[in-house]
Amino acid sequence: MSLCCLLAVRTYDRYKFGLDFLHREFTSAAGTGVSSRLLRVLYDGVEPVSSTRRTPWVPFSRSLNAAQKEAVQNALDANDVYIIHGPPGTGQRAGMQERQSQHKDGAMVLI
Prior knowledge:
- By secondary structure, the protein is an all-alpha fold.
- It folds into two domains: 1-47, no CATH class; 50-111, no CATH class.
- The protein has four helices and no strands.
- The two termini are 19 Å apart.
- The longest helix has 20 residues, at 9-28.
């Protein structure tokens, strides 16, 4: 996965730290199922996979805007990984809390 610094350097540094941490953790358990696939997506340039069928869901939160609902839908449809990023105060946490509330598939959600 390539990570470009387009906006805030601090945000970039946090993402880089997190991805480096994941790499160390998953490398120590490499070759085991989902971890192996996730490693290939994050570090070897393998394209993440999303479902071709939309996952039906009903929002728990009535305050989500259209962009947040789209992000939740995309996160629900992602088979591998989906990253929500945006400037402070634009609702990433609300979107991911909604995704966590929709937690029916055993997927891991990192907030």
